[in-house]
Amino acid sequence: MGPVEEFRTNGAGLGYDDAKVGETFIRIGVGVLRKPEEPRFGQFKTYEIVDPGKWTVRKGADWVEFNQELTGPSGYAYSYRKTVRLAKDQPRMTLEHSLKNTGRRAIETNVYNHNFFVIDGKPSGPGFVIRFPFELTATCDLNSIAEVRGREVVYVKELDKGQSIITNLKGFGDSAKDYDIRVENSASGAGVRVTGNRPLSDIVFWSIRTVLSPEAYISMRIEPGAEFTWNINYDFYTLPESK
Q1: Number of H helices, E strands in the chain
Q2: pTM of the model as a whole
Q3: Cα Rg for the chain, rounded, in angstroms?
Q4: Does the CA dihedral 169-174-176-178 come out positive or negative?
Q5: What is the rounded distance in angstroms from the CA atom of residue 13 to the CA atom of residue 149?
Q6: Cα separation values, 39 from 14, 42, 45, 125, 179, Å
Q7: Could you tell me which of 102, 104, 108 has the C-alpha nearest to residue 78?
């Protein structure tokens, strides 16, 4: 399933580092959560939700909007709006976001999208290529499963069940034009292009046999009363037939 988005502050939730055991912190888009006794934040752990905030949903023929109003601990509060919109005249889906700081403390966080791409049920392996508009450098070994070749990540072999690869990708600049990622599968002749209107702050590439995930991060610092907006476009296309 996807796309799936997550906000993180210092690798955890908003206010997590300041909260004592039994106190609360925030996961933006989820709610106010209780901090248990634990050695470190669990990114994929299910925490007790103390307050989910106030959710409202509006929808039209080709869009749906989700809005969360939340007042949390330690002076944090926000209004988060996300709209999923389908274009009328082209194969495009757009995610429109707005995060407004309604509290008295600055909100400093980043957000990324897992994406979880699957094309025609094809397993992650040769035939898939992930393209970027800049020269890439991988920070971790891809275990002879995939390779960075210039501006592309290509698979050398198919992942087996239980195998995974993960690395940060470097080489992007401070312009939003570098938020431009293409995932293509030559066997299916299908591709998707992901573009954002904010500069990248990080890229993590993660893959298991069933999905591949180029995860593009955006960082933000929102002062009280200010609003931060960003959009992500997904354009779907077919590859030209080889001759």
Answers
A1: 0, 19
A2: 0.94
A3: 19
A4: negative
A5: 35
A6: 17, 9, 13, 37, 35
A7: 102
Cα–Cα distance for residue pair 143/124, rounded to 1 Å: 14
The pLDDT tens digits for 13-61 are 999 999 999 999 999 999 999 999 999 999 999 999 999 999 999 999 9
The amino acid at residue 73 is P
Residue 243 has pLDDT above 80, yes or no: no
DSSP class of 74: G
Distance from C-alpha of 50 to C-alpha of 53, rounded to nearest angstrom = 9
Q: Are 33 and 72 in contact (CB under 8 A)?
A: no
Torsion sign (Cα): 71, 229, 237, 192: negative
Encoded amino acid at 213, one letter: S
H-type alpha helices, the chain: none
**Beta strand 49-51 with 31-34: parallel, antiparallel or unpaired?**
antiparallel
Q: What are phi and psi of 132, to 5 degrees?
A: -130, 160
**Which residues are CB-contacts of 189 (< 8 A; sequence separation ≥ 6)?**
238, 239, 241
**Spatial CA neighbour of 33 closest among 46, 20, 49, 17:** 49
Tokens of 109: 């966080």
DSSP-assigned beta bridge partners for residue 85? 63, 94
* DSSP state for residue 153 in the 8-state scheme: E
DSSP assignments along 165-206, one per residue? EEEEEE---SSGGG-EEEEEETTTTEEEEEEESS--SEEEEE
Q: Which of 47, 39, 37 is CA-nearest to residue 13? A: 47
Domain ranges for the chain, please list them: 5-113, 128-216
CA distance 80 to 101: 9
